[in-house]
């Protein structure tokens, strides 16, 4: 069992706990992007285990009649071992998703993995339209990547970027990242036929996207993390397509630590839970 202190950010240790969360969220109009916690594997065995766990989860989601999808980290299914292992495991997951008519997102990790991730996505997107990839507005290369992705049938999630990247290739100041995020949104709303996912909790970015949607009519969805602005997620779902990214699994401690340390209010929440006030 996940201790109550971490259950704000993590949907459970087991698929059964996760699916209970998915089902409760669906009643509130929000669908779930399920992520099994795990990353940076250097051996094939844990990568295969997570691949198989995702395949089983896709079947469980289908059997339960739920509208959830999954999101996979490249380094959790073998990119750290080699591109061939990554592609083999991703292929098995996408095949299983196709059997169940489910959607597969590919998360984006640090910049040395960008090309391999986008290339694998591009190959799958031309074969199966229910795949999506994440791109990071902090990377200076992203507008060019978006122009290439605009012609593919899948979906693209735009995030600000969670990795500490060098100044030569990335915007590092908050204001620069926000400006780049807005520019990328403009490009997507103008050049994509739809399939835009706004992966941000930032009310300013969400407002920018809704304005572009009203002007240009391009379809989009909003994605936020479990435990962050959840009331806003439910409110936005009355008008827009909203998805919550919900991690689950036994490796929750380091994820919980990251979420807690990134914002003062999350740290206060955790400390209050410890001292019981
Ligand atoms: P921030 O700049 O962190 O915050 C801006 C504003 O948002 C704040 O001023 C506040 O108004 C509001 N806000 C933010 N957090 C909170 C909070 N806890 N409570 C209340 N208000 C808050 N990164 C990757 O590099 N690769 C990925 O594959 C990836 N996938 C993601 C998937 C999803 C669905 C999401 C939501 C994020 C993902 N990220 C990913 C992380 C992303 O890159 C950012 O690090 C993260 O979302 C924080 O940026 P932000 O846009 O939310 O805005």
Low-confidence stretches: none
* CATH T-level fold name: TIM Barrel
Kindly report the spatial arrangement of strands forming the biggest sheet. 1-2-3-4-5-6-7-8
Number of domains: 1
Number of strands: 8
Class from helix and strand fractions:
alpha/beta
Gyration radius, to the nearest Å? 18 Å
Mean pLDDT: 94
Q: What is the N-to-C order of secondary-structure elements (H for helix, E for strand)?
A: HEHEHEHEHEHEHEHEHH
- The CATH class is Alpha Beta
Named CATH architecture: Alpha-Beta Barrel
Instruction: Identify every distinct bound molecule in the structure, by name, code or SMILES.
Output: flavin-adenine dinucleotide
Shape: globular
User: How can the largest sheet be summarized?
Assistant: 8 strands, parallel, barrel
Oligomer: single chain
Give the DSSP E fraction (strand runs of 2 or more residues).
Answer: 15-25%
Enzyme class: oxidoreductase
Protein name: proline dehydrogenase
GO molecular function, one term: nucleotide binding
Pathway: Amino-acid degradation; L-proline degradation into L-glutamate; L-glutamate from L-proline: step 1/2
């Amino acid at each position: 069992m996940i201790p109550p202190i971490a259950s704000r950010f993590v949907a459970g240790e087991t698929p059964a706990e996760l699916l209970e969360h998915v089902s409760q969220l669906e009643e509130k109009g929000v669908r779930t992007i399920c992520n099994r916690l795990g990353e940076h594997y250097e051996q094939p065995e844990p990568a295969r285990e997570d691949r198989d766990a995702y395949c089983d989860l896709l079947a469980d989601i289908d059997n339960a009649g739920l509208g959830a999808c999954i999101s996979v980290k490249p380094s959790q299914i073998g990119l750290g071992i080699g591109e061939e292992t990554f592609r083999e495991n991703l292929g098995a997951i996408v095949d299983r998703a196709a059997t169940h008519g489910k959607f597969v997102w590919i998360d984006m990790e640090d910049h040395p993995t960008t090309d391999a991730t986008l290339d694998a996505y591009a190959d799958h997107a031309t074969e199966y339209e229910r795949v999506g990839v994440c791109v990071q507005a902090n990377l200076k290369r992203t507008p060019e990547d978006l122009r290439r992705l605009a012609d593919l049938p899948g979906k693209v999630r735009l995030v600000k970027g969670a990795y500490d990247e060098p100044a030569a290739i990335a915007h590092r100041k908050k204001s620069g990242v926000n400006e780049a995020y807005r520019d990328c949104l403009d490009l997507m709303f103008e050049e994509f036929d739809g399939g835009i996912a706004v992966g941000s909790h930032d009310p300013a970015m969400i407002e920018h996207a809704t304005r572009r949607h009203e002007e240009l009519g391009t379809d989009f969805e909003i994605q936020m993390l479990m435990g962050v602005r959840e009331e806003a997620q439910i409110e936005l779902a009355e008008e827009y397509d909203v998805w919550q990214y919900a991690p689950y699994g036994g490796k929750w401690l380091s994820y919980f630590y990251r979420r807690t340390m990134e914002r003062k209010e999350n740290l206060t929440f955790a400390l209050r839970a410890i001292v019981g006030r």
